[in-house]
Amino acid sequence: MKWLLIAVIALILFFILIMATKLKVLFSFYHGNDNDHLKIQFKAWFGLIRYKIEVPLIKVDDNSPTLVVKEKTAAGPQEDTANKDTKQFSAKDLINSMHDTKEVFNHIVSLHKIIRNFLSHVTIRKLEWHTFAGIGDAAHTGMLTGALWAVKGSIIGLVSHYMKLKAPPSITITPHFQFAVSQTAISCMIHFRVGHAMLAGIKLIKFWKGGRPDFKSKPLSALSDDGTQSV
Q1: From residue 159, how far is each of 89, 152, 171 by CA, in Å?
Q2: Complete DSSP assignment for 56-100
Q3: Residue 119: which of 154, 156, 155, 162 has the closest Cα?
Q4: Which of 115, 134, 160, 185 is the most buried (most CB within 10 A)?
């Protein structure tokens, strides 16, 4: 009986520790003309727990109307590579993903309220967004620059409204009037507690309505068995 009580107390303490754990997410994305690179890192317990998702290449396939993505994942304190894979995504996959998103919205009551409540507990410690843009014409480049400032301003306004922005964002747009260029780099660092994410997940299950949704997208691991093939 004594050992059972100790085990129960230990489990409760461990659960409390998990709920109180602060998760750090580092997000970075770079787009330069035809080159794209996406990296997402998750860290907890002062870096003892790490997980990284890296997509070093996104391009259009030369032989078919599909998008080629090379994905690499790593886990552990040393971020040892756990998996490398190359996949192709067609327009049909994109349409199926949009259909699945609509299915989720239709099956969950108060989804916006649940997401908004979770985002209120998310803290942004760092946000940088730098863009180099030009289309080879001074007048049109000026118009493009103004439009980009409007878009960035709106997005930053939404971010600061729904999340806690602890540091002023670093936002720049550098126009190039003589030649065409398209480059952008985004990096941010956010924090939230695992307990808030778990609570949001529980609410999603609680407010689920209807039966099983009609998802059309295939799991990533099954893409090579369907019409979309791995390279």
Answers
A1: 29, 10, 13
A2: EEEEE-SSSSEEEEEEEEEETTTTEEEEEEEEEEEHHHHHHHHHH
A3: 162
A4: 134
Q: Which two tokens stand for residue 51?
A: 């997980």
Query: Which position has the higher pLDDT, 101 or 221?
Result: 101
Residues in the chain, overall count: 231
DSSP secondary structure letter of residue 217: P
Pairing of strands 170-175, 123-135: parallel
- For 113-163, how does the pLDDT look when each residue is reduced to its tens digit (9 = 90+)? 888 899 999 999 999 999 999 888 888 899 999 999 999 999 999 999 999
Amino acid residing at 94: L
HSE at residue 202, side-chain half, CA atoms within 13 A, is 6
C-alpha–C-alpha distance, residues 40 and 35, integer Å: 17
> What sections of the chain are H helices per DSSP?
2-20, 91-107, 111-119, 138-162, 194-206
Is residue 22 within 8 A of residue 44, CB to CB? The reply is yes
- pTM of the shown model: 0.70
Tokens for 82, please give them: 């756990």
Give the pLDDT score at 229: 41
**What is the mean pLDDT of the segment spanning 87-115?**
66
- Of 172, 181, 174, the C-alpha closest to 135 is 181
